[in-house]
Write a structure and sequence with these properties.
Elements: H1 16-27, E1 36-42, E2 45-51, E3 60-64, E4 68-73, E5 94-99, E6 104-112, E7 115-122
Antiparallel strand pairs: 1-2, 2-7, 3-4, 4-5, 6-7
Family: Belongs to the small heat shock protein (HSP20) family.
InterPro entries: A-crystallin/Hsp20_dom, ACD_IbpA/B, HSP20-like_chaperone
Keywords: Stress response
Length: about 140
């Protein structure tokens, strides 16, 4: 059985980059931590919300790398002088990646009640109609 690719469809021209992007996203291996929501806040804006209880602003980093939004968290171990009888709150590091389409910009990030909100916006697309002249050969 052969693998179907976008190049297999003769009417889909110039989508090779999209295919590479999909493959890269599939390989990113995001695990289920931390949980997150993605909501559409208007026709041209979105909000990603991650549950990052226990993380402070200094424990988190947000970068855009090659059209990929990367959110990383690393808590510092401050257990000196503390004796835990039970430790059920995870203090592990994480990395979450989100692939951004062309024209999607990352806005502000807000920490609120253990939730990290990252706002995204997309420019309103313009309809372009182009007429191509036919020359006699």
């Amino acid at each position: 059985m052969t693998k179907m690719t976008l190049a297999s469809y003769p009417h889909m021209l110039g989508f090779e980059q999209l295919e590479r992007l999909l493959e890269r996203t599939a390989k990113s291996g995001n695990e289920g931590y931390p949980p997150f929501n993605i909501e559409q806040t208007s026709d041209y804006s979105y909000r990603i919300t991650l549950a990052v209880a226990g993380f402070g602003e200094d424990d988190l980093s947000i970068t855009v790398e090659d059209r990929q939004l990367v959110i990383r968290g690393r808590q510092s171990e401050d257990t000196e002088g503390r004796v835990f009888l039970h430790r059920g709150i995870a203090a592990r590091q994480f990395q979450r990646s989100f692939v951004l389409a062309d024209g999607v910009d990352v806005g502000e990030a807000i920490m609120e009640n253990g939730l990290l909100h990252v706002d995204l916006s997309r420019a309103k697309p313009q309809t372009v109609v182009q007429t191509i002249n036919i020359k006699k050969g």
